[in-house]
Each structure stands twice: as structure tokens, then as C-alpha cells.
Amino acid sequence: MIKRIKHSLEYLIDKSSREKTSIAEENLLNDFAFTQYQLSKWNAVSMGNSDEVSQEIYENIQLRIGKKKTFNPYLKYMAAASILFLVGLGFFFRPNIAVEKQLSFKTSDTPKSIELSDGSKIYLAANSLFEYPEKFEGDQRKVSLLKGNAFFEIAKDKKHPFIISSGEIKTRVVGTSFHIQLSKSKCEVIVVTGKVNVSSKGQSVDLVPNEEALFESQKLSKQMADKSFLVNWYNTDVTLDQTTLKQVITILQYKYGVSFQYNNEHVLATPLTVFIKKDASLENVLEQINYITNLKFKVYGEIVKVD
Questions:
Q1: Residues pairing with 169 in the sheet
Q2: Beta strand extents in the chain (DSSP E only)
Q3: How many angstroms separate the CA atoms of 295 and 113, rounded?
Q4: CA-to-CA distance for 74 and 11, rounded, in angstroms?
Q5: What is residue 258's DSSP assignment?
């Protein structure tokens, strides 16, 4: 009986992969996969969150096949259910997922940096929160940017891709450097060196230096990056020469994790040249801008008001 079920399942999956199934056969396969997924006993400790694992399998399949083909959304359940079904049939299975001790790295009013166990360096903006394992285990190096902004310098390791979760997107790299800027309404990934893949909800874009991925309103798009972001200004002195106040404010928002409020948008066009030391406090930079522009900047926690 088990051999017959196994044979039928393999036959239908193979037929479906060649797009030869009838509507009735496809519905049968989908119903079976979803039922097995619902009934399965998932070991969250050793195998991770079932929804996240099945979604990741589904997204990886989509990335491999490209956008030319479309797959039923239950394919992600089919993939996860098939793993568990084979376990139930007694097939040898050892998930290459180890339990990793998770640590948190949080900043207050100044940017800080940290070096991970693989040699990767993370420069975290002020008012940001980053989660990472004490030591990487398994086939992938997974971390999370839970709040704020960061610059990543990832150590090369082709056998162990580095994956960052930030909001609803995942950024996948091998060895490269890039910014991730996360807010409540959007997430941006800006590549400085190397290649990066950004994905979310079945959408995927590949980035090279000087390119940016923007995830906003559930849509992922690619565009050219602002030149000001093509350096690690968390760890480098930066001169913004003959730029606008709007551009300076953008850098300050990301570096110090603050938002700006102003009554008159015309002030954003004010031209100025600003020198920002890598370890300068927000107050010191604002004093410099106050002197140049005669504007008044006042800090209220994570909000800066401009008069």
C-alpha cells in the first residue's frame, strides 16, 4: 500500500513538473499536499518554523525556475509535506538545521559596529536592533535586522550563503557590502560591492553595485542608487559638498535613526557643504548645519524639528 502511494505521488509530481496534469489531477495533488501539511507533526526545534520553511522552499523554487512559469500557491505546502511524508515512510532524513543561540545587538543614540563569528562586520545605525547567532551552524548564515538601518560587510563563503531578514524581505549574498534601511512603510537595499539577491512574496530582483531594491506597498522594484549611499558612512568620514539640505537630512535619518519634521518644505532646497565625522554625535552635526544655514534644529528623542 505504501509503495503504491509513493509511486502515485512520484508519478503525479513528475507529471505536474512537466505541466502534463489535468485539472482534476492537479487538484488531487494540491489537496493531498495541503492535507498532509495540516496533519504533519513538525518539530519546530530541529526544523524551524513550518510556515517559514515551506515559504522559503517555495521562493527558492521560484528563483530557480524564473518568472516564465507559474506554480500553484500550494506548491510550498507540497514541498514541506513531501519532506514529512518521506519521513513518515521511514526514509532517512537528517535536517541540516542546528539550534543556534540567538543574540541581540541594540544601539541607542549613536551608531555602533559588531563582528560576527564568520568575520562579517555589521555597522548598525543609532536606534536600531539586530539579531544574530552566537555561532553560525548549518548550510546558511541567517541574521535579522529587526529595526533601523545597517551597513553590512559580509565575509566570503560560497558554501554558506548569508541571508538577512528585514521586515518582509530577504537579502541573500555570499560576500559583498551593502546598506539595508528598514522603516515601517518600506525597506531599501543598496549595493556597494558584489552581487545581492532580494526577494519577498514571490518577487525577486538581482542587484549589482550602484543599484537599489525598494520594497514598498507590497511591491519590489529596482532602481539606481543615490551616490551618497555608495560608501560606508557609518565607519567613514563623509563630506557632502554643495548638496541640498534634503540630501543631508536623508543621510542623518539613516545614520542616527531619527525622523525630521519641518513646517516649510522650501528649506530642503537650501544648498550647503557639510563634513560628518564617522563618530560625530547628531547634536554636533546639527550645530554645524545651524551655523551654516541659520536654521534651528531641535532634538526630541527620535524626532528632529526644523524651524
A1: 166
A2: 102-106, 112-115, 121-124, 129-133, 141-153, 162-166, 169-173, 177-182, 186-193, 196-200, 203-207, 211-216, 219-224, 238-244, 259-262, 271-276, 297-300, 303-306
A3: 32
A4: 18
A5: -
**Averaged over 51-77, what is the pLDDT?**
54
Residues 40 and 42: their CA atoms lie apart, in Å, by: 6
- How large is the average pLDDT for residues 262-282? 89
Q: Which positions ≥6 away from 47 have C-beta within 8 Å?
A: 53, 95, 97
Q: Which residues in 111-132 are b (16+ Cβ under 10 Å) and which e?
A: bbbeebeeebbbbbbbbbbbbb
User: Side-chain half-sphere of 161: how many Cα atoms within 13 Å?
Assistant: 10
Residue 169 and residue 221 in contact, taking contact as beta carbons nearer than 8 Å: no
Q: 304 pairs with which residues across the strands?
A: 260, 299
pTM over 0.70: no
Cell of 173: 549574498
**Nearest by Cα to 229 from 281, 286, 191:** 191
DSSP state of 60: H
Which tens digit of pLDDT belongs to each residue from 37-56? 566 655 555 555 656 666 66
Q: Quick one: what percent of the chain has pLDDT higher than 90?
A: 43
Beta strands in 121-168 (DSSP E): 121-124, 129-133, 141-153, 162-166
Return the closest-CA partner of residue 127 out of 109, 140, 115: 109
